[in-house]
Each structure stands twice: as structure tokens, then as C-alpha cells.
Automatic annotation (TrEMBL):
Pfam families, per database record: FUSC_2
Record membrane topology: Multi-pass membrane protein
UniProt-annotated location(s): Cell membrane
Keywords, in A-Z order: Cell membrane, Membrane, Transmembrane, Transmembrane helix
Transmembrane segments: 55-79, 91-110, 138-155, 161-183, 437-454, 460-477, 484-500, 534-552
Similarity section: Belongs to the YccS/YhfK family.
Name of the protein in its database record: FUSC family protein
Ranges for domain Integral membrane bound transporter: 425-546
Native organism: Corallococcus praedator
């Protein structure tokens, strides 16, 4: 049965009866769970060389201050998160220049009250870097750590201060040379990989729909299908940002960048068509002669997946794709056979045949352009101007910062919380005269995250990694008699730790901790620092957990309803765009659809954080799951209607548009106000001038709306009341 909400959670098994007692074990169990993927071997080698060569020079020349070049090499390598070379160079250059300035400004000794005041202002400012994205956020965290280290290890003469800054710049330039020059410089490689990922995700969607059984329940609403759709949108957004950053400053060239732009445009267009096809197949009849038409459509989708993977292979490996042979007219022949199909099945499968024809055109263009990419052939006659990059990239930095200078901003609250907690850590640790007190403050900076669940997870990872790593360091001190052996093992540990960082943060910490302890021991000659690091890490982790609980706690249950409300309002605007007469331009529809996709990604991320913080029974989260699932299904239903508007440009969707818009606005307002929604009208107004296909599509859209309304009605009190006590369990 469809439309009753029962299919919302199909494919997602909620743990039964899990309560607060299962919260901490769930975090502990995930400490050593590896993510899928491969180790970042190249990044590990670059980081090891960036640190190891300056350390070797420092040891050979017997110049301890030259070790600042090694620290610079390590920090500049850590800020390199991949992507376009232009973006990487900007981030690494900023780390080099700002890191040298930080050490230059505060390298001289200062009293405790000055250290405390400077810590508050600098760490708070670094916390605001998150509002510009992930890479600036990492840059801000590293600069905050460098600030604390410089504060704790002052020098005693202006000459030494200048020399320290010079060594830091030299180390940063060495790390940039390794990452951007010594390794093969292929400016469009990151963009090619990002676009290839788009085609891989589209191929996964096509394959999944192609193997749908002819009988049984709907497969559109399963959690796996929702996740596939989310991955497609995320891959498109990543590719859009990567290609846009790569092409900045290259407006004059019209070669490889233009080929990639066309491939990204085709991927975006095919995502719409595949969404419309999955909706059409799910709604179309399956009995009698319809089975053959459905089988032919699914066979065509399998061939489409082959073509899409061929394009992905061309982008990744440089191979020339071989187009698959698939019969686009097979569905049409079934429709024209003796007896044919009855209405409305004929209209639905005719629409499906039209969608197959359009997706075949886009697939052929993608295969053709991918072939020309390696041969350097000119583009086919095709207009790429309607496709645009993210307009948000052109916003001034002060405008972005101004958006977050409000207590309602998560970034604002996190930056202030981070600054205050780091200040307390500095005052406490330095005031008590703790050995290597800066490890306490650095732990606070690393562990404290904008969200409570992430802070608990990060704290556990940091503490577990430090405990195991420090024990390993104690053992290495006794088995490595020579200084050069210690330097070698430090470089090896750094290489391996950075390589496994994308797979598991705890293992990264386990391997990084002994490297840092040994590095500090070499500099100071104190061979008891492993125990000191353990104690300082425990103190810093405890302060971070206190900070997230006491300073503006904002559990995810308070944000999740607002995130879903944003999705519903974006869906409302998308449907308004689709319902316009005359039919809007494809570029307008694409932008409206993209806004819904971005809002859905944000809501799904909020739901995942909610899972990490939730204390109550897992079954109470089912309405939230239904909201996410059917908000995406509503988007798919609107997309299917948009794809058919080319055949029905004269139908009047105005009454239905007003009905759907009012209902979505009422649901969004109810979520934001934490109240039950008003009643939903039982019958939607009829569509004037519509045929059987469009009436079916509108009926499906209204059905998804009814499930959303029911899900909002069933929201548990903990998700509806802003004052609910649903705080994370401390580690």
C-alpha cells in the first residue's frame, strides 16, 4: 500500500529499544571502524617529506630553531585537503604567511594575563573561519594551534623571533613545492575526478532502477534510494565547486575546461531525467502487456549505466569510451503493437519512452565529449551558457562574515564557545604551571566541535588515540638508542598516520601521538613526556565536554525541524516554478531544483547528527525519517511533473500550485513553531486541460504531501518542544 507512510522507513532498520545506555557504546564501537576508500598514500609521503627534510637539516646543522621549518611543513601539508590546484595554493600560502606572522607577533615572552587575553581574541577569530567552508575551517584550527604553541614556547631576542619566522616561511614553501610542483601538476585532474564521481553515482541509480522487480512494493521510498539521490546531488555540488574554482582565472581558455563543463551540464540534466523515469516506472501499471514495456525500459537503463561508466572511465583513466548499443524505440514498438496498451497506461509509457529518448541524447553527447577530451577534438555544437557555477562564490568575505555575526548562527556560538573554553584552558594550565601546558589548550581546540555529538566523538577519538599512542611512544624511547633512528620513525609515523586519516581518525591519532611526543622529547631532552601528554589530553578533553554542555548548548533536536522547514519551503518554490505558464526556462528549473537538493543535504546531515545525540527510543525518530524520505520523494514527484511539462505546456496548474504551496507553508510554519499542523484539505483541485498522465502525476504529488502532513503530526514531543531536555550523554 502506498501513501500511508509505511514505506518511508523501508530499508532502514532502527535499533529497537535503544536508549541512553546505548549512546556511549555506539561511539566507542565506532572508534576503530574504517571508512570505505583507499589510504591517501601520496598525501602521507608529501607530509612525511615536508616534516622530515627540515628535521634532518636541523639535526645535521645542530640548529634547533630550524625545527620550526618542520612544523611549518607539517601544518601546511595538513591544510592541503585536495581539490583544484588554485584553491590548494591559496590555502597553503595563507597558512605559510599567517603562520609566520603569528609566530613573529607573539614569540616574545608575555605575562599570564596577556596570554589569556590574546588566546580569547585569536582563538575566537579562528573559530569564525568555519563560515567560509571546510578548508578555511581547518586553516583556522591550525592557526589557533600554532598560536598556542608560539605562546608557550617564546624566544628571548628580536633576532631569534625573525629567524623563527624565516624558518617557518621556508618550511611552508618547501611543503608547497612538494604538493604543487614536485608531484605532477595537472590542474584539471581534481575536476575530472569530481565529474567522474557524478557519472558513477548516476550509473548506480540507473542500475538500481533497472533491477526493480516487476512485482512487489515500491522501491522509490526506500532509504537506499533516498541515499542514492542524496549522493547524486552531493557529487554534482562538489563537481560544480571544483570545476568553478579550477576555471577561475582561466576565462580565456576554451579547451579542456569547456569539455568538462559540457560533461557536468549533461550529468545535471540526466539526474533530472533519471528521477523522472524512476517516478514514472514506479507509478506505471505492471500487469499484462505493460510488463513487456517495463522490461524494455529497464533493459535500456542497464545499457545507460554502461555508457555512464564508460564516461567515468574516460575521465579517470583517459580511456576512450565505447557506446553501448541500446534500443530506445523498444518501448514505442510495444505501444504500437496490436492491442497496444489501454489508457492511462499508454500515456504513462509514452511519456517514459520520451524520457528515454531524451536521456539517450544526453548520454550520446557525454560519450562523444569524453572521447574528444583525450583527443583534443573540438566541442560539438552545443550551448553551455545556461549552465552556471555557484553564484555564492562571488560574495565578498565581509558579507559572508556578516551573515554569521548573530547569536542565532551556529558558527557564532561555536567561535565564542571555542574562544572562552580555550581561554579557560590556557589560564588553568599555564597558571598551574603544567609541563607542556599548551597540550591542554590544543586538545580543547581539536576536540570542541559546533555540535555536541561530534564533540563527544572527537573527544573519544582524541583520548583513545593519545592513550594508545603515548604508550607506544614510551616503548619506542627504550628501543631506539640513536637520535637518527627517532627522526626516521617520526617521519614514518607521520607518513602512515596522514595516509590513514581519511579512513579512521582514531588510528590517525594513535600514530600521530607518538610522533609528536618523540618530536617534543628530542627538542627538550625530557624522556617522560608521554605521561604528561596523557594527563594534559584528559584535562583538555574534559574541558571541551564541559564547554559544549555549559556554553550555549544547542542540541540537534532544536535545529532539525528548522532544517526540514527549509526543505519544504524550497520544495514550495520549486513547484511554483514548475507550475508557471508559460513553461519556464530549463536554467530556472535547474536552479530551483538545486536549491531543494542543497536544503535536503543539510537536513539529512542534521538528521545524522541527531542520531548521534538522541537519548530516547529510536522508534521516536521515525517521523523525522519519514520527513526526510518523503520530502525527497515530493521533490522527485515535482521533477517528474517538470519533465512532462514540455508535452503539456497549456495545462493550468495554478489551483494545484496554490493548494500545494499553502499546505507546504503550513507544515513549515508548524515545524518552526513546534506545534501541530492545521488540517489538510482532503481533495486537491482538478487540473484543467490535463491528460491522464499529468493527472496521475499530480495525484502522486498530493499523496506525498499527505504523508508529510501525517509525519509532522506524529513528531514526538522531544522534537517539537524547544525546551525539551534531549542533551547528549557526556563521555
Amino acid at each position: 500500500m502506498r501513501g500511508d507512510g509505511g514505506e518511508a522507513t523501508e530499508g532502514w532498520v532502527a535499533p529497537r529499544g535503544r536508549s541512553a545506555r546505548g549512546h556511549l557504546p555506539r561511539h566507542v564501537a565506532g572508534l576503530f571502524r574504517f571508512q570505505p576508500g583507499r589510504p591517501a598514500v601520496a598525501a602521507g609521503l608529501r607530509t612525511g617529506l615536508a616534516l622530515g627534510v627540515p628535521l634532518l637539516v636541523s639535526a645535521l646543522l645542530q640548529m634547533p630553531q630550524a625545527s620550526w621549518a618542520g612544523m611549518a611543513g607539517l601544518f601546511v601539508a595538513l591544510v592541503d585537503k585536495g581539490g583544484p590546484y588554485r584553491t590548494r595554493a591559496q590555502a597553503m600560502g595563507a597558512m605559510t604567511v599567517l603562520g609566520a606572522l603569528v609566530g613573529f607577533i607573539i614569540a616574545l615572552p608575555s605575562p599570564l594575563w596577556v596570554d589569556v587575553g590574546l588566546t580569547f581574541f585569536w582563538v575566537t577569530a579562528c573559530g569564525f573561519a568555519r563560515c567560509y567552508g571546510d578548508t578555511p575551517g581547518i586553516l583556522g584550527m591550525l592557526l589557533a594551534n600554532l598560536f598556542v604553541v608560539s605562546l608557550a614556547l617564546p624566544v628571548h631576542s628580536p633576532k631569534a623571533v625573525l629567524l623563527q619566522a624565516v624558518f617557518f616561511v621556508a618550511g611552508g614553501l618547501w611543503s608547497m613545492f612538494l604538493a604543487l610542483v614536485l608531484w605532477p601538476l595537472r590542474p584539471y585532474r581534481p575536476a575530472r575526478l569530481a565529474i567522474a564521481n557524478c557519472y558513477e553515482e548516476l550509473a548506480s541509480v540507473a542500475e538500481a532502477v533497472a533491477v526493480w522487480p516487476l512485482e512487489g512494493p515500491s522501491r522509490v521510498g526506500t532509504w537506499d534510494a533516498v541515499q542514492r539521490a542524496a549522493r547524486v546531488r552531493q557529487s554534482l555540488e562538489t563537481a560544480r565547486a571544483t570545476l568553478g574554482a579550477t576555471r577561475q582565472g582561466r576565462q580565456e581558455e576554451s579547451g579542456r575546461g569547456e569539455h568538462l563543463l559540457v560533461l557536468l551540464e549533461d550529468a545535471d540534466a540526466m539526474s533530472l531525467l533519471l528521477t523522472a523515469m524512476s517516478e514514472s516506472l514506479d507509478e506505471a501499471p505492471r500487469e499484462g502487456a505493460c510488463r513487456q514495456a517495463r522490461q524494455e525500459a529497464q533493459r535500456a537503463l542497464r545499457s545507460l549505466a554502461v555508457d555512464l561508466r564508460g564516461v567515468a572511465g574516460a575521465l579517470v583513466r583517459g580511456t576512450v569510451p565505447v557506446p553501448a548499443s541500446w534500443d530506445v524505440e523498444a518501448v514505442t514498438r510495444v505501444l504500437q503493437a496490436d492491442g497496444g496498451l489501454p489508457e492511462p497506461a499508454r500515456s504513462q509509457y509514452a511519456h517514459l519512452a520520451g524520457l528515454l529518448g531524451r536521456v539517450r541524447e544526453h548520454s550520446a553527447v557525454a560519450v562523444d565529449v569524453a572521447s574528444r577530451l583525450e583527443r583534443g577534438g573540438p566541442l560539438p555544437e552545443r550551448d553551455t551558457k545556461p549552465f552556471s557555477m555557484d553564484p555564492g562564490q562571488s560574495r565578498a568575505w565581509w558579507a559572508v562574515l556578516g551573515d554569521h555575526l548573530t547569536p542565532e548562527s551556529v558558527v557564532f556560538r561555536h567561535a565564542l564557545r571555542l574562544g572562552l573554553t580555550a581561554t579557560v584552558a590556557t589560564a588553568l594550565a599555564e597558571g598551574l604551571g603544567l609541563n607542556h601546558w599548551y597540550w591542554v589548550t590544543i586538545t580543547v581546540i581539536v576536540v570542541l566541535q559546533p555540535y555536541a555529538g561530534l564533540t563527544t566523538e572527537k573527544g573519544l577519538q582524541r583520548v583513545a588515540g593519545t592513550l594508545l599512542g603515548s604508550v607506544l611512544a614510551m616503548g619506542l624511547v627504550h628501543v631506539l638508542p640513536e637520535r637518527w633512528m627517532m627522526l626516521a620513525i617520526i617521519v614514518v609515523l607521520i607518513c602512515v598516520s596522514v595516509s590513514v586519516r581519511p579512513l579512521n581518525f582514531t588510528v590517525f591519532q594513535v600514530l600521530l601521538a607518538p610522533a609528536l611526543v618523540l618530536l617534543a622529547e628530542i627538542q627538550t631532552g625530557d624522556w617522560q613526556l608521554a605521561g604528561v601528554r596523557i594527563l594534559n589530553t584528559l584535562l583538555g578533553g574534559a574541558l571541551a565536554l564541559l564547554g559544549i554542555r555549559l556554553l550555549w548548548p544547542s542540541p540537534e533536536h532544536a535545529r532539525f525541524p528548522e532544517e526540514v522547514a527549509s526543505v519544504l519551503r524550497a520544495d514550495r518554490d520549486y513547484f511554483r516554478e514548475v507550475a508557471r505558464t508559460p513553461v519556464p526556462k530549463e536554467s530556472d528549473l535547474r536552479e530551483a531544483r538545486r536549491k531543494v537538493g542543497v536544503a535536503l543535504l543539510s537536513a539529512e546531515a542534521s538528521f545524522q547528527r541527531l542520531l548521534g545525540e538522541w537519548k530516547g527510543p529510536a522508534k521516536e525518530l521515525e517521523p523525522g525519517m519519514a520527513l526526510i524520505t518523503f520530502a525527497r520523494r515530493l521533490t522527485a514527484a515535482v521533477t517528474a511533473l517538470a519533465a512532462s511539462r514540455a508535452w503539456h505546456p497549456t495545462s493550468d496548474l495554478g489551483p494545484v500550485m496554490r493548494y500545494v504551496s499553502d499546505a507546504l507553508e503550513e507544515l513549515a510554519s508548524a515545524l518552526v513553531a513546534r506545534r501541530a499542523p492545521g488540517g489538510l484539505k482532503r481533495e486537491a483541485p482538478p487540473v484543467e486541460g490535463a491528460d491522464a498522465l499529468e493527472r496521475t502525476q499530480v495525484s502522486r504529488l498530493v499523496r506525498q504531501l499527505g504523508v508529510l502532513h501525517h509525519a509532522v503530526e506524529r513528531m514526538p514531543p522531544a522534537l517539537r518542544a524547544a525546551e525539551a531536555d534531549v542533551r547528549p550523554v557526556p563521555a
